[in-house]
Amino acid sequence: MGEWFSNKVLSSFQFFGIHHLLMIFLFILGMALLLIYSNKLRTHHRIVSILRWTLFTILVSSEISYQTWGIVNGAWNPREFLPFQLCSLAGILTMLALLTKNEKLSQIILFIGIVPSFLAVVTPELHHGYPQFRFWQFFIHHLVLSWACLLLVITSKLKITFMKTIESYIYLLIYAGITGFIINPLLNANFLFLARTPSANTPLNLLGNGFWYYFNLCLVGLLVFIAIYGVYMLTFQVKKGRK
Question: Under a CB-based contact definition with an 8 Å cutoff, are residues 205 and 197 in contact?
Answer without folding.
Answer: yes
